[in-house]
Amino acid sequence: MFDLKEDKTFDLNQAANHLAAAIRFKTVSYPDSEMTDFTEYEKFLVFLTETYPEVHRICKKEMVNTYSPIFIWEGSDKGKKPLLLIGHYDVVPAGSESSEEWQEPPFSGTIKDDYIWGRGAIDDKHQVISIMEAVEYLIESGFQPKRDIYIAFGFDEEVGGKMGAEKLAALFKERHLEFECVIDEGGCITTDMMEGLDTSAALIGIAEKAWANFKITVTGQGGHSSIPPTNTAVGVLAQIIANIENHPMPARLILPVKEMFRKMAPHMQSKRFVLKNIEPLFPIINSALGKNATTNAMIRTTTAVTMTGGGDAPNVLPQKAWAVVNARILQGDTVDEVIAHIKKVNPGIDFTIETLLGENPSKISSLDAHAYKTIESIIAEMYPDVLVMPYLMVGGTDSRKYAEVCDNLYRFAAMVLPKELYETIHSNNERISTQNLFSMIEFYCKFITAMQ
Fold first, then answer.
1. How far is residue 349's CA from residue 159's CA, in Å, rounded to a whole number?
2. Is 157 a residue of the active site?
3. Residues 6+ apart with CB under 8 A from 411
């Protein structure tokens, strides 16, 4: 197995400079693609070509939907299922770029104090660069895979992945490809995951909740506000919102959460007995878990009202009022069941509900698969004092798009993120340490060579 720590030819400074350069491309994606500057995407793809010549020399390359590259590193044994390593190079807007908000400009790619600063440093250009660095290094080192290695990068993950990952997955399905596993962003090593846990934890996402947006519309009596009806459209909408918030969907314990709690139990300073016996005790303690936002998101489909609209003037009764509900759907629930629940908790109220965007949850990947066991063993080798455990992704990734071409989708990045750094994702001062970048590259080298 190739070991970067023992190879004096590997240049971490060069890799850090490559990530810094990648950050400088403003590959910001927007829900309205008309707002997206695709010339930045084109420049970024040219940058990949110029920066990783061996990948482009050895691997077959094709472009999907103009901006999603596929690289195929052919293996010697066509009887083995290929691996699929994915990431995305689009980023969310940086918000305010003032020095008051960002210690370093968000698209500067500044390297300072052993950190690479800027939007995309963690989400998700570090993953794109780590994969490319690892493959470039392995090719230069003379490694020849037995399995085919596929690399695919999306360009609109931050806005749903319909133009990138969804098109990539459709192409793979059309070609009847079936992958041994997919590795994507998601989990990491956290140093302060939960109060009372006496160790750092490596979280391997084996499933992720789906998400859906629903628009609720109430029609009411218009007119002058000086003669209001008993209930205005806005008032009825407020009642609907209150009913949704006061009547959450039922709690349920699914495999990733159960296994996560079970693994944590011996390392908890308190609550060991409860977590060790989480399954039989769940009917008793689920209400307590529901009071904490983090654990609540792990045990039920959540709903959050994120947008509202209605009147145009303070003295005019709006004839319509609306709200958008964002749902994160737990395995076992569906889009239709969320709609049914919203209607059920609002009996006798007249409103319409429209699905703006809806997906059902991903399946749960196996804990017994060779790929999962390999990830476990690599983490144990790289971080011997870290507790490795599965977990449920409550956010979304591109990986869910590949469910029809792979049964084993794993979401993990080999980086240590304390809460302070984790909270920079989609926020100010996003940055990654050079040590974390090295660990990411090392992980991919180890994983590719071990999965042969």
1. 33
2. yes
3. 183, 184, 185, 186, 187, 204, 205, 206, 208, 393, 397, 399
Distance CA 44, CA 432 (A): 20
Per-residue pLDDT tens, the chain, 452 aa: give them.
567 877 878 999 999 999 999 999 999 999 899 999 999 999 999 999 999 999 999 999 999 999 999 999 999 999 999 999 999 999 999 976 555 789 999 999 999 999 999 999 999 999 999 999 999 999 999 999 999 999 999 999 999 999 999 999 999 999 999 999 999 999 999 998 777 888 999 999 999 999 899 999 999 999 889 989 999 999 999 999 999 999 999 999 999 999 999 999 999 888 889 889 999 999 999 999 999 998 999 999 999 999 999 988 999 999 999 999 999 999 999 999 999 999 999 999 999 999 998 889 989 999 999 999 999 999 999 999 999 999 999 988 999 999 999 999 999 999 999 989 999 999 999 999 999 999 999 999 999 999 99
Tell me the helix, strand and coil percentages in the chain, rounded to 5.
35, 25, 40
Give the separation between CA 56 and CA 442, rounded to whole angstroms. 21
By three-state DSSP, how is residue 161 classified? coil
Question: What is the Rg, in whole angstroms, of the alpha carbon atoms belonging to the chain?
Answer: 24
Catalytic residue among 90, 156, 208, 259: 90
| SS3 at position 243 | helix
Q: Report the alpha-carbon distance of residue 100 to residue 89 in Å, rounded.
A: 26
Burial 351-375 (b: 16+ CB within 10 A, else e): beeeeeebbebbebbbbebebbebb
Q: Is 225 helix (H, G, I), strand (E, B) or coil?
A: coil
Sorted by sequence, the CB contacts under 8 Å of residue 292 that are 6+ apart come out as none
Residue 218 · residue 233 · CB < 8 Å? yes
- Active-site entry in 104, 157, 158, 442: 157
Q: Which residues contact 92 (CB under 8 A, 6 or more apart)?
A: 28, 29, 119, 123, 158, 426
Let me know if 90 is a catalytic residue.
Answer: yes
Q: Which two tokens stand for residue 142?
A: 């003379």
Q: Which tokens go with 59?
A: 């691997």
Say if residues 452 and 148 touch (Cβ distance below 8 Å). Answer: no
d(CA 203, CA 407): 19
Nearest Cα to Cα of residue 91 among 153, 15, 170, 169: 153
Closest CA to 26 of 40, 7, 39, 45: 40
Do 151 and 135 form a contact (C-beta atoms < 8 A)? Answer: yes
